[in-house]
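Before relying on records like the one below, remember that each one covers exactly one chain. Contacts with other chains, cofactors or solvent are not represented anywhere in the record.
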Amino acid sequence: MPRAGLTTDRLVAAAADLADEAGYENVTLSALARRFGVRDASLYAHVRGLRDLRTRMALLAGGEMIDRIAAAVAGRTGKEALAAFAGAYREYALTHPGRYTATQIRLDRSLVTDSPAMRRTAEVTYGLLRAYGLDEPDLTDAVRLLRSTFHGYCALESSGAFGDPRDHEASWNRAIDALHITLENWPREPAG
């Protein structure tokens, strides 16, 4: 019988909070059970195990992140939209490090297809890139470029790996400038 007040949504939200506070790798069923003052076994009425919990965290965080990105991008196009997208991405990654880490796990394809948040992520991201005149397979390549650039920058910044005294914001803005120029001048594959 599920403990009164304990729900899947509350567990996932608490796990996401724990990830931000203590690190994604420290989210365990035992740690979460301690937060609620219950035994580990009580959690299995709400999640199938740690993998299920982490998948749900990824979907929660992905939804939160795309909501912020979509709000930032709304009504913007071109470089302004790209900068807003990138800024919201970076802000979420730096202020919610555990949640952000959860967004980087590989999800089962059917979960991505069935998730409204993941569909919205594709819509917003592809919408941004279509405004640059990109179609497949260039869309996929451009998504990978943006994601790897944003993720790499955020990972290095959050770990303190930028040792040079140059302002991080100035470097970030130059990266966005370079991405915008790249997207505007995307190399097209010759027609078959």
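Residues 50-73 form the longest helix (24 residues).
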